[in-house]
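cache lookup: miss for this entity combination. No prior model stored, computing from scratch. Input as submitted by user K.M.:
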Amino acid sequence: MLLQEQSTKTKMSDTKTAIMIIGGAEDRTQKSEILHTFFYRSGSTDASIAIIPSASQQPALNGGQYVKLFETMGAKQIELLDLRRRKECMKPNVLAYLEACTGVFLTGGDQLRLTDILANTPAIEIIRSRVQQGQLTLAGTSAGAAIMGHHMISGGCSGEPPNRSMVELTTGLGILPRLIVDQHFHNRNRMARLVSALCAHPDKLGIGIDEDTCAMVESDGLLQVVGKGTVTIINPCEMSYTNCSCVEPDKPLSVHNLRVHILSHGDRYHLHQGTVFAPTAYALI
Amino acid sequence: MLLQEQSTKTKMSDTKTAIMIIGGAEDRTQKSEILHTFFYRSGSTDASIAIIPSASQQPALNGGQYVKLFETMGAKQIELLDLRRRKECMKPNVLAYLEACTGVFLTGGDQLRLTDILANTPAIEIIRSRVQQGQLTLAGTSAGAAIMGHHMISGGCSGEPPNRSMVELTTGLGILPRLIVDQHFHNRNRMARLVSALCAHPDKLGIGIDEDTCAMVESDGLLQVVGKGTVTIINPCEMSYTNCSCVEPDKPLSVHNLRVHILSHGDRYHLHQGTVFAPTAYALI
């Protein structure tokens, strides 16, 4: 096992790891650009991948689909870590695999189930630490994307003016703590709920990701869009006023001076610098 | 008639006129703040009001509801101008009433029907001219709001990433030419279609108005929000990039650097200066 770990880590030094936040409903055929990118960023045929389907109500079935897909792509090793209870997140064999693997994929389902099982466990601590050190590519789709921030949107609705009661916020897994992620974004008309979430946390950055679309974050903080839809960045850093703290929960919110970017495939945004780049250059219209 | 006109105009000199852009589904009971504001801004008990229900498929019924409401409020004179054909927009008695009245109300329905009947007719020229001179308060709800800009959203959909094919644009009645208005805004999840419209016209200003909400524009360009929901301002004046001109109609749009304000009751925005004000003062959070 030790030899295998060393061998894997040596190979991974050639591969640029990333955090891949996927908006759900990604293409799962052999053509999938997003899943191929995850496979490549995990080490391609040298990849050792962990599938964690804990968000799903049918974890074996849902996780099994990804296992087959990455097997077909040619990953060296794939383990379905079917963690259903918190104590399973402390098992030595699970932790050993997470210490050695090169890619972790969090499936969709219910983000509350995922955080209930994983939060503050050795398993997520290993993942977070190895992601931060660039040793591991982490991808999460739908519920697996929602957990990326410190604050997590766990529910809500659409079809209303922005208001505090239209979004349920709880604590995520804090992989990228500054982000508040929303997924299936334009597909489920979630702009108002993400704005509502940001009103209460204007020190955060809102990231709304459409279906079959990925916000891929490099270790230096550069986010790049991959896929069929858009990634919406809502930056409240210039926000000059909100009535959030004094308005009743079901009453409309005021928010002045949000900066919004809609990014499509190839567009980039630097999370630390707050700058946005077009696919080829920073072009003027 | 001449005496009556002079009398009306003298009384209106005490009343501050406005353009009232209403997001549809406004409260039509006696409690209605928006319709009371229109009544007041038209001269209260000295008001001579024209109801134009041309957008509606049931113009007599729909217009009749507003006639009854303003009668109950105590307007001096109310005429239902049931204009169903363009030639009716040239009739001397219609034009004489529009030259003399102090308030014009455009009902909801289909904005294309409204522009087909009214565009480039003497009737709309009189309304536009008298509104610009501060002689008349003009209100439009739903379809009656959509026609306010030079560019008009005549159809579209939601639940998609912003793209050119999700919004149908045609020519409005140009009362406030710089605006692109969308109504039933958050209620029908129309953020993506308004953004899509603005990509093609970044010299315009997007105004999304929720139901039972009014963007009331004073003669000096100060917009104030009245009502239950929000008015969303999307200002593309700092837009640094869009792929709008080179992307296929159904492919996602990129738009970098939009400035967005969500305004609720009492908030103000200066259309010419691009500045936003909280209800009591320009407060910091």
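stored under new cache key. Chain B is about 25% helix and 25% strand.
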